[in-house]
Amino acid sequence: MTLKVVSEAEAAAMLGVHPATLRRMRKLNTGPSWVRLSAGRLGYPLDKMNDYIEAQSATTRAPRSRRNGGEIAEAASTAA
Protein backbone atom coordinates (compact mmCIF):
# COMPACT_ATOMS: atom_id res chain seq x y z
CA MET A 1 0.00 0.00 0.00
CA THR A 2 1.38 3.40 -1.01
CA LEU A 3 0.83 6.36 1.24
CA LYS A 4 -0.43 9.38 -0.73
CA VAL A 5 1.11 12.56 0.68
CA VAL A 6 0.30 16.14 -0.32
CA SER A 7 2.68 19.09 -0.07
CA GLU A 8 2.30 21.95 2.37
CA ALA A 9 0.97 24.19 -0.41
CA GLU A 10 -1.58 21.54 -1.48
CA ALA A 11 -2.67 20.94 2.12
CA ALA A 12 -3.09 24.68 2.70
CA ALA A 13 -5.19 24.95 -0.46
CA MET A 14 -7.37 22.02 0.66
CA LEU A 15 -8.03 23.84 3.95
CA GLY A 16 -8.46 27.25 2.34
CA VAL A 17 -5.67 28.81 4.41
CA HIS A 18 -2.32 30.42 3.64
CA PRO A 19 0.72 28.10 3.97
CA ALA A 20 1.97 30.32 6.83
CA THR A 21 -1.28 29.64 8.68
CA LEU A 22 -0.78 25.91 8.18
CA ARG A 23 2.78 26.20 9.56
CA ARG A 24 1.41 28.06 12.61
CA MET A 25 -1.21 25.34 13.09
CA ARG A 26 1.55 22.71 12.92
CA LYS A 27 3.61 24.56 15.56
CA LEU A 28 0.59 24.83 17.85
CA ASN A 29 -0.38 21.20 17.23
CA THR A 30 -3.86 22.24 16.11
CA GLY A 31 -3.66 21.28 12.43
CA PRO A 32 -3.77 18.04 10.50
CA SER A 33 -1.23 15.26 11.03
CA TRP A 34 1.99 15.56 9.06
CA VAL A 35 5.02 13.42 8.29
CA ARG A 36 8.68 14.30 7.80
CA LEU A 37 9.74 13.08 4.37
CA SER A 38 13.41 14.12 4.63
CA ALA A 39 15.52 16.88 6.14
CA GLY A 40 13.62 20.08 5.43
CA ARG A 41 10.72 18.34 3.68
CA LEU A 42 7.38 17.38 5.13
CA GLY A 43 4.01 16.34 3.81
CA TYR A 44 0.47 15.68 4.86
CA PRO A 45 -1.00 12.18 4.38
CA LEU A 46 -4.10 12.54 2.23
CA ASP A 47 -6.19 10.21 4.40
CA LYS A 48 -5.31 12.25 7.51
CA MET A 49 -6.17 15.48 5.66
CA ASN A 50 -9.59 14.09 4.76
CA ASP A 51 -10.14 12.96 8.37
CA TYR A 52 -9.16 16.41 9.66
CA ILE A 53 -11.45 18.22 7.22
CA GLU A 54 -14.35 15.92 8.11
CA ALA A 55 -13.76 16.44 11.85
CA GLN A 56 -13.64 20.21 11.41
CA SER A 57 -16.84 20.17 9.36
CA ALA A 58 -18.63 18.18 12.03
CA THR A 59 -17.70 20.66 14.77
CA THR A 60 -18.66 23.90 13.01
CA ARG A 61 -21.97 25.54 13.85
CA ALA A 62 -24.31 27.62 11.76
CA PRO A 63 -23.59 31.34 12.09
CA ARG A 64 -25.82 33.29 14.44
CA SER A 65 -27.54 36.43 13.27
CA ARG A 66 -27.87 39.48 15.48
CA ARG A 67 -31.11 40.42 13.74
CA ASN A 68 -33.10 37.44 14.96
CA GLY A 69 -31.98 37.58 18.57
CA GLY A 70 -29.10 35.14 18.19
CA GLU A 71 -31.15 32.25 16.89
CA ILE A 72 -29.53 30.04 14.32
CA ALA A 73 -30.45 31.40 10.90
CA GLU A 74 -31.85 28.08 9.60
CA ALA A 75 -34.15 27.60 12.57
CA ALA A 76 -35.43 31.16 12.32
CA SER A 77 -36.22 30.85 8.61
CA THR A 78 -38.17 27.59 9.07
CA ALA A 79 -40.17 28.98 11.99
CA ALA A 80 -41.48 31.94 9.97
Mean pLDDT equals: 83
Low-confidence stretches: none
Large-scale geometry: globular
Distance between the termini: 53 Å
Percentage of residues in strands: 5-15%
Helix share bin: 40-55%
Overall strand count? 3
Enumerate how many helices there are, as a single number: 4
Could you characterize the architecture of this molecule?
- This protein is of the alpha+beta class and about 80 residues long.
- It has a domain at about 5-60: Orthogonal Bundle (Multidrug-efflux Transporter Regulator, Chain: A, Domain 2), CATH 1.10.1660.
- Helices cover about 50% and strands about 15% of the residues.
- It contains four helices and three strands; from the N terminus they run βααββαα.
- A three-stranded antiparallel beta sheet has the order 1-3-2.
- Strand 2 and strand 3 form a beta hairpin.
- The longest helix has 14 residues, at about 45-60.
Topology readout:
Elements: E1 5-6, H1 8-15, H2 19-28, E2 35-38, E3 41-45, H3 46-59, H4 73-79
Antiparallel strand pairs: 1-3, 2-3
Short description:
The chain is of the alpha+beta class and about 80 residues long.
Provide key terms for this protein:
80 residues; Multidrug-efflux Transporter Regulator, Chain: A, Domain 2; alpha+beta
